[in-house]
Write a structure and sequence with these properties.
single chain; 640 residues; alpha+beta; 4 domains; five-stranded antiparallel beta sheet; five-stranded mixed beta sheet; 18 helices; 20 strands; binds adenosine-5'-diphosphate
Length: 640
């Protein structure tokens, strides 16, 4: 029976799975595909947008760079380009390089330090000095220092400084440092004078003043104050006197631009025109050659950003993209990037376009998918657990229905047997087929027994109904349990006399009080005895034993019958439940006896247990609380 009911509930679960889970799985699959498609579409859209942005960016940059290239012919435009100090623009005409205003280089490939100071105007004065007429020479140098010719003036001031000492020498050198356009051996006199002043201060041990002058001089030198060669630049920068503690180590714009132009000068200058980005210096150089004249602009990243990339920023906002110019040598694009190399675009850099909010958009898509999956999982869980509970409830209902129908069949059978005997006996007696008085009375006794059996059956059914409905309250009274057991056993023996049944009773004589309903307890014990006899077809002896243990009275009914399998041991106490062998081997019964026993014992505050081994027999133990009976008050209470 449990097998059949679990089979049908398994079928119901299977049906449920087919009806609910299969469409759900289909739904999941379809949903998943939809999301994947969504994702792929979004990725494609991003890719297209990046390509479009890259095209636009390149055309904007091309225009910007080309416009700078053409503006290089115009002096004013060149000056404007160089005005911020982060770029130089220049024209090279043969061997002359003219820098646009504002542009500075720390040193130049084509230096123009000014006109050389010649010794010729000072020949006479120098001769006087040679002869030891220092005053005469000084007087002449003085006169020459008033000259409008810068080289003469510079030479005179230089000689005057050489004749002077200490502060006077410092003054002459100061005046010399103000002059522009004259040089001595390719060193501008201004630079020369200032270096000399540092040496003089050093000699005079005026260290703070020397350091102050040296700091300013270094900065001027590094910022391209003089138009000198790399050799002069490095020689002066390396002069020990200019060495000031804590001098800035960072390269200046003029130095970086000078390095960039130097390397361009050596490699690319002679190509007709071109655009180069130098990763080592970060400088971008654009140049145009018109016959003998060459024009170029070299700019630091700030210049590139201001002059060429500004319109790109508006495009970035509009296209929600990030556009960067990078080293042209890097060609491979990473995922989510559109890269156009310098070789493809003819721009100085490679252009890389990435999405500004692409990853956020993808994350939003992924989050939506996770949410959807979580919802679906919850739904499936709900459906699964709902299905499980429904199947279990249906299974139980089916089991109950089957129990009830088994019960009806069993009860009908129980009724039919005594009724058939009663009908036959009655017919015999009515037809007076038996006339001998002894035989007649034997028939009457048989009739009475069947009537009793029928009566007991009806009573037990009614009892169960009443017990469950609680319509017959238990009337608890003080009872001597041992005496009660003894009398029930005796009555049972009388009843079954002639069936070969033997009851071995083991009760000591001590009276033991329990609070109990006599009829109900009799009923319970009778049921246990009846079962013990019924389910022991091969052994007609039943053992009954009464003992006390920890304030409880234990009544044991033991048999050596068919026994009860483990799987049935709990269920047999439920209403209408009969063991498998009881049904298959044709043992009569209705499945209500043990449920009544449990009900009655529980109502007395006790419990009923069974120990059994299949083929070896069973022992049912009823445990009831022993009570102390108080004679005066006629009351009793639980001893435990
Ligand atoms: P019934 O005896 O009318 O079938 P019960 O409620 O008295 O109903 O017993 C329920 C089931 O318990 C029986 O069908 C039988 O399988 C099992 N059973 C009860 N007592 C014994 C016993 N002494 N030995 C073996 N099986 C028993």
């Amino acid at each position: 029976m449990p097998g059949r009911s679990s089979n049908s509930s398994r079928r119901i679960v299977g049906l449920f799975l087919a009806l609910v889970l299969v469409p759900s799985a289909l739904l999941v699959w379809l949903g998943w595909r939809l999301f994947e498609q969504d994702r792929a579409n979004a990725l494609r859209q991003f890719e297209e947008r990046r390509g479009q942005t890259a095209d636009l960016a390149i055309s904007i940059l091309e225009q910007a760079v080309a416009s700078t290239e053409s503006s290089l012919r115009d002096t004013a435009a060149r000056n404007r380009v160089a005005a911020h100090g982060d770029a130089v623009a220049a024209v090279i005409d043969g061997s002359r390089l003219s820098l646009a205003e504002g542009g500075r280089l720390a040193y130049s490939p084509l230096p123009d330090p000014g006109k050389d100071v010649s010794a010729q105007p000072f020949a006479e004065a120098d001769a006087l000095k040679q002869r030891g007429d220092v005053a005469g020479a000084r007087e002449r140098y003085h006169r020459l220092s008033q000259s409008r010719e810068v080289t003469v003036k510079a030479g005179a001031l230089l000689r005057l400084s050489q004749l002077a000492t200490s502060d006077a020498r410092l003054d002459w050198l100061h005046r010399l440092s103000q002059l522009e356009g004259a040089s001595l051996e390719d060193v501008p006199v201004g630079l020369l004078a200032r270096v000399e002043r540092c040496h003089q201060l050093d000699e005079m041990q005026r260290t703070p003043a020397r350091q102050q002058e040296a700091t300013v001089l270094r900065e001027d030198l590094r910022n391209g104050r003089w138009w000198i060669s790399k050799l002069v630049y490095e020689a002066n920068l390396g002069d020990g006197c200019l060495n000031v503690p804590g001098a800035l180590a960072d390269r200046t714009a003029a130095e970086t631009l000078a390095t960039a132009i130097e390397s361009w000068w050596q490699s690319d200058r002679l190509t007709p025109s071109g655009r180069r980005y130098q990763p080592a210096t970060g400088v971008t150089i654009v140049w145009v050659n018109d016959g003998d004249t060459q024009r170029f602009v070299a700019g630091l990243p700030g210049f590139v950003e201001r002059e060429w990339l500004t319109p790109i920023r508006t495009l970035e906002q509009r296209q929600r993209a990030r556009i960067v110019t990078r080293d042209p040598a890097i060609r491979t694009a990473t995922a989510g990037e559109e890269r156009r190399s310098a070789a493809d675009t003819d721009l100085p850099w490679s252009v890389v376009v990435s999405d500004m909010d692409g990853s956020a958009e993808m994350a939003r898509l992924d989050q939506r998918r996770s949410l959807w999956l979580a919802g679906l999982a919850a739904l499936l869980l709900l459906l699964g657990s709902g299905g499980y509970f429904v199947a279990r409830a249906i299974g139980r209902e089916l089991a109950v229905a089957r129990l009830q129908s088994d019960f009806v069949a069993a009860v009908s059978h129980e009724f039919r047997t005594p009724l058939t005997s009663m009908r036959q006996l009655t017919e015999i007696l009515v037809d007076e087929r038996v006339t001998a008085p002894e035989r007649q009375s034997a028939y009457f006794r048989a009739l009475a027994r069947q009537t009793d059996r029928l009566h007991r059956l009806v009573e037990s059914l009614l009892d169960l109904g009443r017990l469950e409905a609680g319509t017959t309250p238990y009337r608890l009274e003080p009872l001597d349990a041992c005496a009660l057991v003894r009398s029930v056993v005796e009555e049972f023996e009388r009843e079954t006399a002639g069936n070969g049944v033997r009851i071995e009773l083991d009760v000591d004589g001590t009276a033991t009080q329990v609070a109990g309903d006599r009829d109900a307890l009799t009923n319970a014990l009778w049921n246990l005895l009846d079962n013990a006899v019924k389910y022991s077809p091969d052994c007609r002896t039943v053992w009954v034993n009464v003992e006390r243990n920890a304030g409880r009275l234990l009544v044991r009914v033991r048999d050596q019958g068919i026994g009860i399998p483990d799987s049935e041991r709990r269920a047999i106490f439920d209403k209408f439940v009969r063991g498998a062998r009881a049904k298959t081997d044709g043992f009569k019964g209705t499945g209500i006896g043990l449920s009544m026993v449990r009900h009655i014992v529980a109502a007395h505050g006790g419990e009923v247990r069974v120990e059994s081994a299949v083929g070896a027999g069973s022992t049912f133990t009823v445990a009831l609380p022993i009570t102390k009976f108080e004679v005066q008050s006629s009351k009793f209470e639980a001893a435990t």
